[in-house]
Structures are given as C-alpha cells and as structure tokens.
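Handout, section B. The chain below has 491 residues.
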Amino acid sequence: MLESLFKISERKSSVGQEIRGGLVTFFTMAYIVALNPLILATTDGAGQFIGGGDRTNAIVIVAAGTALIAGLLTILMGAVANFPLALATGLGLNTFVAVSIAKNSTWAQAMGLVLIEGIVILILVLTGFRVAVFKAIPSPLKVAISVGIGLFIALIGLVDAGFVRRTPNVVWGSTNSKPSAVPLELGDGGQLVGWPIVVFALGLFLTIILMVRKVKGAILIGIVVSTILAVILENAFKVGNSFVSPTESNPRGWGLNTPMIPDSLVATPRFDTLGLGFEDIFGAFTNAKTGFLAALLLVFTLLLADFFDTMGTMTAIGNQAGLTDSEGNVQSANKILIVDSIAAAAGGAAGVSSNTSYIESASGVGEGARTGLASIVTGICFLLTTFLAPLVAVIPYEAATPALLVVGFLMMAQVKSIDWQDLGIGIPAFLTIILMPFSYNISVGIGAGFVSHVVIRAVQGRSKDVHPLLWVVSLLFMVYFLSSPIRSWIG
C-alpha cells in the first residue's frame, strides 16, 4: 500500500529511510513550537495578548496551535503532493505580523490580513500564475537559489548553536550606543565558551564521521546522541539557559531549550486561538491606525515574502532529492504550492501566523527522505507534540543544528553547474547566493537575483531572452524592496 501511494522504490528509497528522514526533519524544526509563542506572546494595538489573558496564557495557547497546524498541514503535504517537505509557522513572517501589523491593530485584524494573504496566494496558484513564474526562472538561477539556501541554513545552524554570534553594540554613556563594526564574531567575544558549544562540535563531527563511513541514519544518530550528552552535561554542571531575563543573558547557556528531563512528559493542549482570523477579517482595512492602502501594502508584503520563500525552498529540496527535471522544475509543483497556500491561510485562521514550507526539511532529505511518507511522519510528530511538548523541549538547538551544516554542504555542491562566464547569469547567481545568508532572508536573495538578471540582460541587448513574467516579478520586487518608503509616503 505504501509503495503504491508514495512510489518509494521508484524514488530509490525505503520505508525505514523515509521514517528516519521524517524524524530528522521534525527534530531540526521542532524549535518553532517553543519559539513562535515567544514572538507572538506580546500585546496588540489594544494592549491585549493573543488569546486573551496574560503572557503565560498566550504562550501555552500559541504553542499548542503552532504544533497542531504544522502537523495537519505537513501531513496534507505528504498525502497530496508526495513531497518530503514540512510546514510550520514562518519565522520572519511571524515577527512581521507581531511587530508591523498587530501593534497597529488587534490580533484578530492582524490574523485576518494573514488569512486574506493566504487566500490570494491560493488563487494565484489555482490560476496557474505561481507555477508559471516558477517555470519562467532560468535553470541556473534555480540552482543559485538552492545553493544560497544551503549557505543560509548553514548560517542559521551556526547562529542557533552560538558558534557565531552578533557582536554587541559599543555603549557610549547610559543612553547612546554605537553599532559594532563587525556584525558577527566567533562565540562570545571571539572565543568559544560553554558546554553547549562542546555538544554542537561533537555532534557535528559525529555526524560527519558517520556520513563518511556511510552509516544509515547518520544525521538522526547525531541528534539523538547529542541530546543525550546535553542532558548529562546539564544534569552535571547546571549550565542553564542563555536567556536569564530581558536584561540579562548567560553566554555559556543553552540557546533555546534547556535539556532537562521534565517532571511530566504530557501536557493538556489548548486551542483558544482557532478561528481568530475570521473574527475581524477586514477590520485592518477600516482601522484608523492602518487604513486601506497601508493594509493593502501589508498584505502585499506578506504575499511576496511567502510566494518566493516557498518557491526557493521547494526548488532547493527538489534539487537535493533529485525530484526535478532537466529544466530544474519540481515534480508536482502545483500540488506543493496549493498545500503551501492553504497553509498560509490556515495559519491566519488558527491565529498562529502564516504557515509556510521549511527549509529545515532539507535535513530529512539529507537523511534519505524522498517521498511524502517522510512528511507524514513529521506531521504525526507535530500532532503528538501538542500533548508531548515537555519532551520535545528536551532537545536543545546545539543538538539539532549540526544537521543544518551538513545539509548546507550537500546543497552547496550544486554550485558547479552555474555558468559563471555568462555575466547575465553569474552576477545574479552570485547576488542570490550571498544575499540569502547576509540578509537572513530567502526572498531578498531571490529578488536581487531576478532584478539584476533583468537589468543585465537589458544592458546586453538581450531583453528577448528574459521571460515576460520575470519583468513583472522584478517590478513587484522593487515595490517590495521600497515598501517602507512607500508606506511613509502614503502615511
């Protein structure tokens, strides 16, 4: 039955391989269940926490909702599209919703805009526009997107593990500060400190050694062994979390989750925010603090970021899994994008922000995932997390992030297929690759690559070589890049 549903043998995989891949994907992105509540558990323009009550109540509710929607949509991705891609609340998008939208409206109005964005992007898929844009991208730029995402997730791994950190600002007096000259540095003050770094380093080398020795389940084994080591070290040395308080940090502490065996493995989930996006779906357009034009621009910003983040992620996963054709087009792209669009709307409707495809799925592909069965495994894990959140909280960043570096290497290997002698391809590919990690944003890299490709081809007198849709998309990206001054201009 599994063979007929997922074509496991045809894609040169096995049931065991898919299960391992699904588990690895879950372990590398389970942090969102803890992180999304921390971002959304803030007050809106009316001074209310999401879901009502206090911040603690908001954290509990959003955590359960985040795991529920991620689980359902990831299972849907596996069942409908048969693609090894997991979905959850989009990082960056949730911050944009909390800071740029909710602070000037209510939570219901903010989630209403997210719901509208999801519906609009679903319409673009059903009309064929989204797939047409994907097919209009030159094949070398698709490769560049995949390589750029590889570097991006490697940087995410290094930052989340604390191997590289933001250089603190230089403080002048009590109120003024000067930005640091170098944005990132090695560890804390140029030195690697604390037991968490030891866990990260040992986990990375263990995973590499197992991969070199061609051991099945190398990435999964690395995560499990690193987590066990982290629990032992925390129990022995009481390392603690890096976030002590809003004004105090512990540079030697664990990045997000502290690896401690919880008193209880089971927690009763609450889903109080389900349906929040429907409560005042068009309220932001009539809200005096936002206004119609500003609300429209906010929807456009969400849409463009979601549109191309997913396109980049799908391309990268498809390339790595060998699920693309000679032109770099992904099999079942339309089904993948339909599910992703539904996820965006579902996230808004459920009050947990727009859900989108996760590039951490590449870690599962690195473990061997090739079909939607892996996504179903990941989705089931998320659903169990609504009850087993305390157990998932045992896995620290430092145990999961070595997988991202290993996968970053695998994706980087595709760079050799780009024609660097053709400046109309080489320069846009270069900008795409470097701006994803440097801006910490997939859409920025894609947009810079599109715009520069169109401009260079026009200068070369080869405008006819550019697909008409790329001209349209590049113009939209210019609006996206200039959205802040446009918002200021329209008040």
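Note. The longest helix spans residues 292-321. Compare this with the example in section A.
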